[in-house]
Here is the input.
Amino acid sequence: MSGFKPFAWEGIKVHSSGLRYNVRLEDYVLRGESGGEEAVMFTWSYTMEKGDPSRPVIFAYNGGPGSPSAWLHMGLLGPKLVEIPGYPSFSEGWRIRDNEEFLLDQCDLVLVDPAGTGWAGLLDQKAAGEYYSVAGDGRAFARLIAGWLKDRGREKSPVYILGESYGTIRSLALADALPETIDLRGIIHIGVSFNVGAKGAMYVEPNVRRLGANAAACRYHYHQDVEEEKFIKDAMEFACGDYARALLLGSRLDRKEYEEVLGRLAYYTGLDPDMLRRNHLRFSEQDFMLGLVPGSLLSMYDSRLTHVFKSGEDSTKYDLKYDPFMEGAADIFEEALLQYAGSELAVPEGRRREASSVDIAERWDYAGYKKDTLALPEELMKVRPRLQMLFVSGRYDLSSTFDFVDWYLSHYDLDPERTDRLVLPSGHASYVGAGMAEELSRRIRKFVCSSR
Here is the structure.
């Protein structure tokens, strides 16, 4: 990005509810220790016109790493949202509608695109090691938030941070890097991924821990005559009881009991009993995504969706390019954001936009982060006695499963009085689907109110 010129645009808008607000789009330039420009982040700020300088403010971002905030912007938090009629089908297309639960009545909102995403970028390629890492990315976001608050005289505002997927890891590194003078009041985690790259070990059988999410998918495809909560609850009780015992005992298990466990495992997972027998009652995530609906690939991001393999496609392994959720949704939120910004706001002219960067994800440095992201929430809540956390999961998410959060909250010492939990009948992007954005927005509104 040679010859870089910072971009800024500001305007007054009126929401369909009658709410008047200010919207500002701008670059935030990050400088290195020598003072040279290294990177730029891009912000979309929605603030009340002549608002209270002590109003709460939510800073939100997606994950990847390598993704801009278009998903959260057009899926949950912006004044306009994407609607996909008939979801989990994409056959009826999509449209843009007003956000009836726009959170600006409760708090100001800032959507952030990290360096290398959207219209943000690296100004010095030699600085990639800093910004494409857990630690450096966290520091960059902390600098941005501190700068945003100072520039607007908002140092007294309670701060909330909201991250999705990798963004939940970012939230931890960011919170740890944020000056204690900033009143960090709450963290909202959507699609919890603390275990990715974590230093700490998870001493639990993966098949036991994930069986709830597997059962949710199986029930959707094969057992809709059974009440969903009961099916999942029974599967999870089986996982923690007879199934865990069978995995522990192995060949020492009585043959009759083995066959009973095998039958129940096949029932709750929908997988071929012969395959389960060959693999000693175990199965991989790939086994499940390829085996639940034979001849099809189950979506990692929403297990209600399937891709039927065509001639010439490799049906022996999971490939992101065939994931049916990404096939249907990958471009929607980016296109909607560009349509909204182009018609109602403004965009930087002549600047290339990166909708998503696999290159950033492949280069990302997890190993260099010194702290354990599994243990860090405990530390943060001890250091900040007013800090609260909201954990949000989608029932059909196989990437960041809801039962991981159940396991996590039962094994780490997070104050239950300052911890809230929500599981929605949705996928990894838990706000996608009829009524999901509204339900999640209402819970976020309640969360912000309760922690003030």
